[in-house]
Amino acid sequence: MNEFALYFHYPFCLNRCYYCNFTSSVLDESVAERYRQTLIKELLLRSDEPPWKDGTIRSIYIGGGTPSLMPAEYVNKLLLLIRDCFNYPPDIEVTIEANPGAIDAESLSAFHEAGINRISIGAQSLIENELRQLSRIHTSKDIHAAVLAARQAGIYNISLDLMYGFTGQSVNSFTESLNRALELDIKHLSTYALSIEGSTEKLSPPQNSSQPTPDPDLAADQYDALCSIMKKAGFDHYELTNFALSGFQSHHNWTYWRSIPYLGLGVSAHSFDGKNRSWNIPIIDEYNERLERDALPQETVEILSMENVQTEQVYLGLRTSDGLTMTEFEHIINPRELAEMVDSGFLIVSDGTILVPEERWLLLDDIVLKLLSKCDKIA
Asked: First CA to last CA across the chain, in angstroms?
């Protein structure tokens, strides 16, 4: 069966956070309306080409940006079109991202009626001064209100995002955010260490010393506290940065971590068909113009070798609690390095599966480099 996940990128926000490295723009409703129409056009064009044609959807994720700003009737139209274009199993996971302060109870009820059954709320912190440092426009009260409104709308699969590792935050303040988040009876938590990369630096005025910057030592201490608190709360640490109660792991993210095909629609969205990776142009106006000419907005197609694919599978597999199946990858793994890292506690081999212990996950990049070092190239 030709199964794949479907991702939509909605790049508009009420304001642009200085550290954001995603393609996003401050909301201009006329630009957004044009974009919503071209997004539908891309869906229709891509649904008629292999390997997506006649495929079965595994999960749907509407990300951004702030897609909760989309009109509810548009979300309904989008999900109805997906049903027309692809095989749409009942009870699949359909997620929308939302920012507190950019969502209301009426919209949430309409989203749920349209088919949204999971929400990912970008809280980032539940400490007021940290929210101001991160240039967020919401308050901790808004976070509480968003969670309550989602639950009242019938969306019980609720995930929060929290950020850590920035100056001005402490281990204690981060653990306070965690504990406040857990009091909201969430089912899933995604965590991110602050990272300022490339073009995002220009959004943070260098003369403003109060802006939070990454602190790797702080992040490591906070990560240790994070793992401990979430374990005590009964959450499964099922991936490097993600925690879930039993049965609430993100189906969509598992698609990426297991190298299952996915189709990304929208500006800058990435796709993977099982062999090749492609991504769309990152400029909203150019994306719109191409689709208005009935031209696909792809910027680049990367043809992956078997070595590329399997190297990525090693990295992605080892960042999950499921790990890797030994027999599947032993031909590219350095046996000497594997034995040494098992002896030193950096890896575990159990029942034919290779795992990275939770306390070593922050060293994942180095572990993978060693594990794949000095191996014969895959034919």
From this structure: 27
Amino acid identity, position 312: E
Q: Cβ of 39: how many Cβ atoms within 10 Å?
A: 22
Q: How far is the C-alpha of 21 from the C-alpha of 37, rounded, in Å?
A: 25
Distance between CA atoms of 226 and 165, rounded to whole angstroms? 12
* Rg, Å, the chain Cα set: 21
Contacts of 264 (CB under 8 A, 6+ apart): 7, 8, 9, 270, 271, 279, 280
Task: Report the C-alpha gap between 250 and 199 in whole angstroms.
Answer: 29
Return averaged pLDDT per consecutive 10 residues of the chain, 379 residues in all: 92 72 72 97 96 95 94 97 96 96 92 98 96 91 96 97 93 97 97 65 42 79 97 97 97 93 97 94 96 94 89 94 92 94 96 95 94 65
> Is position 274 within any domain?
no
Residues 6+ apart with CB under 8 A from 311: 332, 372
Biggest alpha carbon distance in the chain? 60
CATH value at residue 139? 3.20.20.70
Measured distance CA(145)–CA(167) in Å, rounded: 28
Residue 360 sits in the same domain as residue 238: no
Helices in the chain by DSSP H: which ranges? 29-46, 72-85, 105-114, 128-133, 140-152, 171-182, 216-232, 251-257, 284-292, 306-318, 326-329, 335-343, 364-371
Say whether both 214 and 316 belong to one domain.
no
Angle in degrees, CA 115, 190, 344, rounded to 5: 140
Q: Do 110 and 177 reside in the same domain of the chain?
A: yes
Residue 344: which domain range?
309-371
pLDDT value of position 199? 39
Question: Do 54 and 192 belong together in one domain?
Answer: yes
Q: How many domains does the chain have?
A: 2
pTM: 0.91
Residue whose tokens read 């890292």: 341
- Asked whether residue 10 falls in the same domain as residue 157, the answer is yes
Q: Could you tell me if residue 272 is inside a domain?
A: no
Does residue 108 sit in the same domain as residue 32? yes
Contacts 24+ apart (CB under 8 A), 282-288: 282/23, 284/11, 284/23, 284/25, 284/31, 284/35, 287/35, 287/38, 288/34, 288/35, 288/38
**Distance (Å, rounded) from C-alpha 157 to C-alpha 186?**
8
| Element holding 190 (H helix, E strand) | strand 188-193
